[in-house]
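Write out the 3D structure for:
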Amino acid sequence: MDSNKLAQTAAALVTEGKGLLAADESTGTIEKRFESVGIESTEESRRAWRELLFTTAGLGRFISGVILFDETIRERASTGKTMVELLTAEGIIPGIKVDRGAHPLAGAEGELVTEGLDGLRARFDEYAALGARFAKWRAELTITERTPSAYAVHVNAQAAGLVPIVEPEVMMEGAHDIRRCFEVTEAVHEALFEELVRQHVVLEGCLLKTNMVLSGKEAARRALPDEVAAESLRCFRRTVPAAVPGIVFLSGGQEDGESVVNLDAIGRLVHRAAAPWPLTFSYGRGLESEPMRVWAGQSANKAAAQVALLHRAELTSRATRGQYAPTAR
């Protein structure tokens, strides 16, 4: 692999003011989201939804790349163009999700490991031929009094080390406070980058997609945005090598407004205290939920849904610079 080309793509994905749209929901996940707004999940409705997203004029002003699901990268729009061609026409870099979901980890009751290594080399070649320029691998770790174990952290990091965008997600579920989230996120990042170096991954061409350092959803006191920003940046300074060209945040179970307000606090802090890497977003639900509600599976609502998507993308883009204003248009 050309390490210079890899580094150029990674840098382009974290262009200032732009972030990623994570449109890589599995069939099961998008079915649940469709059901919540009264849409039947069929091959055609999924195709129509993704075509709506990718034909939104001007989306490339705020979105640098889109993560696709296996089904999507093979689809064609109603015009006959591939989804990759739609994105490329808007100046957006197409990528692909390559993991195959989380499954129980043998020998670690209640913990998960991400699967999908079988045939990965051949799938990489196929996805590149289909137009993908980056790939994402996600590992899921849950906080309880006894988890995640060191075993689970290291097994998941090893799997993640094979792809350019690595996503070790420390889950929000639970009553843990922000200090506990900091401890777990720190341990996960340390294991991850130790394994990336061991696997000879070119760090200059590898992005980190990670959670913010947050209180658990059921915590007695939820940390405020300024605390989230300070603890997130402190954690990353301790664990993420300066060679990494950027960090992209997942929304990770936060409400739409919460994920943008916290991102805005991070953006303001980063502009006051320079960080060695750009910090931006890689949101799925945080960008898609409002447009999906507006669309409701009806072709007559397509234009209004695209306006909603562009609005969410602009607000989130502003937040990366600490300039979030909820009513900005």
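The longest helix spans residues 178-198.
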